[in-house]
Task: structure prediction
Amino acid sequence: MLWCRTATTKTSVWTIEGAGLVTVVVGTMLAMAWGLSGDAADPSTPRPDQVAGFMRAKLIHSQDVLEGLAIEDFDLIDKGAQQLSLASDDASWQVLQTEDYARQSAEFRRSCDSLRKAAKAHNLDGAALAWMEVTMKCIQCHKYVRDERSSSR
Result:
């Protein structure tokens, strides 16, 4: 992959650099794959392979937050939370078109905002608690999507 790992000078913790580049590269590859597939039945609905790539990119941002919490790097926490919040506005995020899904996405963004505020205040305990809330929003939404898809079959 296109990310490199470098050891920090103060600790033995490895940091991930270039996650934004990975997101751009993955997004570009997915866009190219979509364009070459010839499948334009409903361009507003993300295909499963697009969603999987998008979810992997979200995991990179989540890893940034968790790493930031572990090493008290508030800038890394803020960056990861901001990227997660921005991702929730992306078309690939919109896998369902329901009021409940829109509400859950808005709640997710609010949780990311709380995480960013705690990071900016250098409040590690507050950031850890906000991260738990963000994680719970993820789990609740994924459960909701699975339930909605299984009930529509």
